[in-house]
Design goal:
The chain has one domain: Alpha-Beta Barrel (TIM Barrel). The radius of gyration is 17 Å and the shape is globular. Helix 5 packs parallel to helix 6 and helix 7 packs across helix 8. The protein is of the alpha/beta class and 235 residues long. The protein has 8 helices and 8 strands, in the order αβαβααβαβαββαβαβ.
Length: 235
């Protein structure tokens, strides 16, 4: 009995938190072309850090995906607009970055809908993709996401850049994740952060350095895409 209960709890945790889990509903993780890499950034926009990231990507002619927090969008509409004007894809990352595992359907809907409105008002663009804060989702989370016309997006390579201050360490972690994905015949969806859920002004110097290393190392052998390319691969 105890073993069975523990197994159910374990399955629930896996379904709710593991980025590759499809237990509670389908999510987009990555495409099927191992040469494709997607740089995705959570928790912005974040002032000068996001500006510098945009400049770095522009110098390398690379488009990325930015999952935006609604309250930061409201504070920085011009910067949010610049992300779109430079050809990047924007995604919904909720209004306040709560732990969705603690929210019911109504509160979840409000978080996502309010962020969607903030992005649309700032840019004139409707975000079509959503990433759950901390990766947490219940079946009702994904149901609400789809009812609002969004595709839920996870990841399959992580640099742990929110806690790491060494760009080389972050880029090495990303490389290991990418190599594993390529061995499995999958594209790579890198999870990075240009901001922080704790507040604007987070120092992401190491993330900037890690992205520069990734671009230097893989630009000649890979194709950088935005995650929406994997929703309609034949577009």
């Amino acid at each position: 009995m105890a073993a069975g209960a523990a197994a159910l709890v374990g399955a629930g945790v896996y379904g709710a938190m593991a980025p590759g889990s499809q237990l509670f509903g389908r999510t987009l993780v990555a495409g099927r072309d191992p040469r494709e890499l997607a740089l995705t950034f959570d928790d912005g926009p974040n002032g000068d850090t996001t500006e510098r990231m945009l400049d770095l990507l522009a110098r390398n002619n690379v488009q990325a995906t930015f999952f935006l927090v609604g309250r930061y969008v409201l504070a920085q509409p011009v910067l949010t607009r610049r992300i779109v004007e430079l050809g990047h894809t924007v995604g919904n990352h909720t209004m306040t970055h709560p732990r969705l595992l603690a929210l019911g359907p109504a509160a979840t809907r409000a978080e996502i809908a309010d962020c969607a409105k903030a992005i649309a008002d700032a840019t004139g663009v409707e975000a079509k993709i959503f990433r759950p804060p901390f990766g947490g989702r219940w079946p009702h989370t994904l149901r609400v996401v789809r009812e609002l016309g969004l595709t839920p997006v996870m990841w399959n390579a992580m640099g742990f850049d929110w806690r790491e201050k060494d760009a080389a360490v972050i880029s090495a972690r990303l490389a290991r994740g990418m190599e594993g994905n390529r061995a499995a015949g999958r594209a790579t969806n890198f999870l990075l952060h240009d901001g922080s859920h704790a507040g604007m002004g987070a120092n992401r110097e190491a993330t900037l350095g890690a992205v520069e290393l990734v671009l230097q190392k893989y630009a000649a052998t890979s194709r950088f895409v935005t995650v929406d390319a994997w929703i309609n691969p034949g577009r």
